[in-house]
Amino acid sequence: MTVAIEIGEATGAAGGNAAGAVLDLEELLSTRLLVQGNSGSGKSHLLRRLLEQSAPWVQQAVIDPEGDFASLAGRYGHLVIDAAAHDEAALYSAGARMRMHRIPVVLDLEGLDAEQQMRRAAAFLDGMFEVAREYWFPVLVVVDEAQLFAPAVAGEVSDEARRTCLAAMTNLMCRGRKRGLAGVIATQRLAKLAKNVAAEASNFLMGRTFLDIDMARAADLLGMERRQAEAFRDLPRGEFMALGPALSRRPLRVRIGAVETASRAAGPALLPLPADVAADPHALLLSPTPAHDTPVRLARRPAPPPVDILAQLAAHAAAVPVDPPGAVCDDADEAAPERRRRMHGLLLAMLDEPEAPFRPVPMLYQDFLVRCRIDGLGRDALDLRRFREALATARSGVGPEAAASQEWTLAEAEATRLPEDVRGVFLLVARAAIERLPCPDDEAIARAYGTHSLSRARRQLLYLEEQEAIVLKRDAAGRRIAALVGCGWETLAGAVAELVR
């Protein structure tokens, strides 16, 4: 399923007519994004626009060194985690829990020194990276000022902290795709960013820059000629050159659109001096100050009392409103049968796509939730457990009317004692037996199991027979027949196939 979000306007090199500039969100999740621009070029504004536009479609995690993105919480329901109030172990657990509960998070690192920022950001990223496979839901991971967390050269921080954070950033950009992590990193200069981290991005948004070496490198990445490199010097604030499979196949000049939330950081603004300047400024500033009048120097951000971050995550998950209210399926609701029928139809349509049956369950779950929201079934139509049960039924291809029959209810009850990954295969055989259809062939069984391997599909039939769920036999012509144990149902003879004894 393709989701295109508008990030601004695309303009010609000569300032021609503007057209909408869109970003393919699904493609971005697979190919990652690198943003470069000098300070004041509009990088944070671009990231905010991307986060706002994609918030309804994908879970988000923001590594925020300056506390600029905390305002997303009030508008889009992000949980803001104050990294200064928690140790690395708690942040590691929070990184895992946010993926398990699918909560959007802003990790606020403001008030910490450089080494503490690196250690805490690394712990949070590692928690997201090391979560169990069943929770590999897609997450858009935005890292602002990425050169702080993946520096190209050693700085004032310890070697241990630098290596730990660099390893976490490398995992995000190099190995995160298979785990559902899509990195979006922003940096002031490519020269400041570790090459292993920058090299994995396939999409680029290059903003204003002035150094010759930076302009030349940006031009090389975008496939522009060297004589065109000076165009980066002329880009106004908020305009970027875009290239990549999720953006454009050719370099495209983009003006970033407006945002709905505001940054807590205020830009420089001219302010006139007060008219009543003191008569003796020297005495005002440098005269001895009595000890009792000396102001106490406060910490930049006093740490709040310790908070159980895992309890905070759980409370936030419970407090997030369902969209629309009352959309969660309840079996006692009079409209529940109609909702189940509509959701079953969405699952069948999703599995009809050529590669859908072979995608991991977390990716199918994310796609299903998006389809439910589009169809008006709400943000949380099914939890993951109920989705797995509904997916096994949909893999069998049974229709809505047959799914309401007493025989099918009995088949689903028999399937509950089997592991989740083979329930779809069992229900496919059960459907053929109930409807008196030929025994499914190896390709149909492989599709129901989510594999391209026919030998693996045949092994699942052998496993079901070992579990005494089915019995396999041949007719006189060598065609396969499957019978369900305890139900008295039997398929018709299918194609000639190996019994995998």
Describe what this molecule looks like in 3D.
With 501 residues, this protein is α/β, with parallel strands linked by helices. The chain has 3 domains: 273 residues, 3-Layer(aba) Sandwich (Rossmann fold), CATH 3.40.50; 75 residues, no CATH class; 103 residues, Winged helix-like DNA-binding domain superfamily/Winged helix DNA-binding domain (Arc Repressor Mutant, subunit A). Helices cover 39% and strands 15% of the residues. InterPro entries: AAA+_ATPase (IPR003593), ATPase_Atu1862_pred (IPR014588), HerA-like (IPR008571), HerA_central (IPR002789), P-loop_NTPase (IPR027417). One of its GO terms (molecular function) is ATP binding. Keywords: ATP-binding, Nucleotide-binding. This is ATP-binding protein.
Please describe the topology of this protein.
Layout: E1 4-11, E2 19-24, H1 25-31, E3 33-36, H2 43-54, E4 59-64, H3 72-76, E5 79-82, H4 88-101, E6 105-108, H5 114-129, E7 139-143, H6 159-175, E8 181-187, H7 195-198, E9 203-206, H8 212-221, E10 239-244, E11 248-256, H9 281-286, H10 309-319, H11 336-351, H12 361-374, H13 384-395, H14 400-403, H15 406-415, H16 420-434, H17 442-449, H18 454-466, E12 470-474, E13 480-484
Parallel strand pairs: 3-8, 3-9, 4-6, 4-7, 5-6, 7-8
Antiparallel strand pairs: 1-2, 1-11, 9-10, 10-11, 12-13
Helix pairs in contact: 4-5, 4-10, 5-6, 11-12, 11-13, 13-16, 15-16, 16-17, 17-18
Keywords:
3 domains; Rossmann fold; single chain; alpha/beta; two-stranded antiparallel sheet; Arc Repressor Mutant, subunit A; 11-stranded mixed β-sheet; 501 residues
